[in-house]
Structure to design on (215 residues):
């Protein structure tokens, strides 16, 4: 039962990762791609947490902390870059 | 046994919310509605999965770190979403064609990035 729940969670996260990657590839403007990257970062956080529960390696929580911090910094940095006049349109 | 049930509930709910974020980002028509789907579902999904981790490993150091992740995600996700939406609005993304009213357009000075409290005259 527990294994089934873990497998189902892995399937959900993988499907979400595929959909976010599609948006990252086709996204018409640069802000769309940045939002897709942020979703991918939070999905990766979920993946690492799920992996550490499934394979009994609790030390990976440190990686999760660093990843959450980095994704926030990346979002804020990208927003500053866009607003202060970076490349407006990537097509 | 009980721990397993609670952990699997947390993990299933969190990963399902993240799947909803993925569906929303592929399905919604423009940037702001996409962010509406992703920022809430993504943050709550990560928080719930960290809660599941904290239930499964009941040691003080791990629980504290998992709760730190929850607090950090809940605090930073709205800030990041706000900053990104603001930057996207100033870059000039197209809104969905079904948008009824763009209130910010009447009140924001796009040059100085100042928000007024009432509709202002535009010279353009």
């Amino acid at each position: 039962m527990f294994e089934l729940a873990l497998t189902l969670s892995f399937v959900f996260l993988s499907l979400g990762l595929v959909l976010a990657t599609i948006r990252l590839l086709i996204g018409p403007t640069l802000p769309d791609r940045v939002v897709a990257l942020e979703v991918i970062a939070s999905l990766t956080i979920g993946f690492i947490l799920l992996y550490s529960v499934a394979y009994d390696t609790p030390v990976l929580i440190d990686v999760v902390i660093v990843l959450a911090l980095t994704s926030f910094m990346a979002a804020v940095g990208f927003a500053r870059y866009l607003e202060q006049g970076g490349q407006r349109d990537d097509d | 046994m009980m721990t397993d049930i609670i952990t699997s509930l947390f993990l299933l709910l969190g990963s399902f919310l993240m799947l909803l974020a993925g569906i929303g980002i592929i399905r919604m028509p423009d940037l702001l509605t996409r962010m509406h789907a992703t920022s809430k579902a993504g943050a709550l999904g990560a928080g719930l999965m960290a809660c599941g981790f904290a239930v499964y490993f009941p040691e003080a150091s791990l629980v504290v770190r998992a709760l730190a992740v929850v607090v950090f995600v809940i605090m930073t996700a709205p800030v990041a979403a706000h900053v990104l939406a603001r930057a996207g609005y100033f870059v000039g993304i197209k809104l969905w064609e079904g948008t009824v009213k763009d209130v910010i357009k009447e009140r924001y000075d796009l040059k100085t990035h100042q928000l007024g409290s009432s509709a202002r005259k535009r010279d353009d």
About this structure: The two ends of chain B are 67 Å apart (CA to CA). Chain B is about 70% helix and 5% strand.
